[in-house]
Amino acid sequence: MNNEVYVWASYAVTFALLALEVILLRRRWRRLSR
Amino acid sequence: MNWFWYASPQTFYPLAGRIALWCGIAAVVLTAVGLYIGLLVAPTDAQQGEVYRIIFIHVPAAWMSMFIYVVMAAWAALGLAFNTRLSFMMARALAPTGALFTFIALWTGALWGRPTWGTYWVWGDTRLVTELILLFLYFGVLALQAAFDEPRRADKAAAVLAIVGVVNVPIIYYSVQWWNTLHQGASVSFTRAPTMAATMVAGMLVMALAFWLYSIAVSLVRVRCMIREST
Q1: Of the candidates B100, B98, B76, B97, which has an alpha carbon nearest to the alpha carbon of residue B87?
Q2: Contact across the interface for A22 and B218, Cβ inside 8 Å
Q3: Contact flag A3-B51 (C-beta cutoff 8 Å)
Q4: How far apart (Å, rounded) are the C-alpha atoms in residues B209 and B207?
Q5: A18 touching B, CB under 8 A?
Q6: Structure pTM?
Q7: Are B24 and B171 in contact (CB under 8 A)?
Q8: pLDDT tens track for B201-216
Q9: Is the confidence metric ipTM above 0.85 for this complex?
């Protein structure tokens, strides 16, 4: 397998998880603001 | 400045909002700079090729996993010592982000290990196994925080585990020196010059700062949610 796949898999999963944490926190915040 | 003024959740709430906003903005900017350096500026490694670029997220994530654990345990210890609500809230707010960075460190480490070592995982490697234990410690703290109906009891139980688990952090850090591990030694140290090119070190440090600011921002927003939920 091309080694660049490992790089993209690392970056994609990392930033997807960080974004998910932010999205879940925003949801929690909005629920409280209602 | 009287710092004890901010020990109350109600007075800390607006300050946390301001810090979270600025840290969040700085984290986004520094992440963009870190990605630019890591993916576009830093040269291709002579031995590892492109795959070494994983270290720009792997190393900062691993640093954060250990650093957040120590900070979380310190807040938990403060909570146990002074029975302050905000200290336990800070410990609660840090645990999910710490667990997330530990998972990222393990995930990116495995993806770096496959092309470099020829394997995703080695059970005999102390650095890898102790980092996995750190993830389980985070899970344990999170589980205990959610295990009791009475939040104070949950916080105290989780605090004890968090404090006991701190012993694992120096073992992770020094494992590469104490044992003959497959994992390489530290590339960046306070006591000696880095063993990498300057742009590589810069990319790693910028990303580490971005992750640090991100962690402050999300944990402060989480604390603000907790304060609102508790009133």
Answers
A1: B76
A2: yes
A3: yes
A4: 5
A5: yes
A6: 0.93
A7: no
A8: 999 999 999 999 999 9
A9: yes
